[in-house]
Amino acid sequence: MAASNASVRAARQEEELMTPYGPKDLAEGWEFKILRSATGGFRNPEWLRSVLAEEQRAGWVLLEKFDDTRIRLKRPASAQANDATLDFDARRTFVGMKQGLLAVIIVACALSSAAVIALGILWAVGVLR
Fold first, then answer.
1. Which pTM does this prediction carry?
2. Are 28 and 16 contained in the same domain?
3. How many CB atoms lie within 10 A of CB 43?
4. Are residue 105 and residue 127 in the same domain, yes or no?
């Protein structure tokens, strides 16, 4: 858990350092966001294009791709006026499978594997015959 928290802190620090916003960027009325994919979906060019096309409907444009799990976008602050007409949350920060669901799937798989191994051991030592 501590390693995971350290990894998250390091990623956030990297995001802050990679593209600092100057006073000009903020004064000109831009907003910025980082969009995340828990499964590394941005490695798939088709999926990345489809996500960017949807984000573009809200006025967001790609600034940079950090890696397969994070991209940085910006849009004019005036684009907020159209947010209510969209069929998705223009301020979302995750796309695809949510991190919590991914964690539940991983834990379920780990518990299932442990149960199969335990049953195999019990069978091997003759408890389950």
1. 0.65
2. yes
3. 13
4. yes
The total of structural domains in the chain comes to 2
Distance, CA of 20 to CA of 32 (rounded, Å): 11
Q: Are 33 and 72 in contact (CB under 8 A)?
A: yes
Query: Do residues 62 and 102 share a domain?
Result: no
Contact in structure between 74 and 63 (CB atoms under 8 Å): yes
Q: Range with the lowest mean pLDDT among 21-30, 33-42, 71-80, 110-119?
A: 21-30
50 secondary structure, DSSP code: H
CA-nearest of 40, 12, 23, 29 to 75 is: 29
Q: Are residues 54 and 73 in the same domain?
A: yes
Give the pair of three-digit tokens for residue 58.
């809200």
pLDDT band at 124 (very low <50, low <70, confident <90, very high): confident
DSSP state of 36: E
Number of Cβ within 10 Å of residue 70's Cβ equals 19
Shared domain check, 75 and 55: yes
What the block records as the tokens of 77 is 């602050």
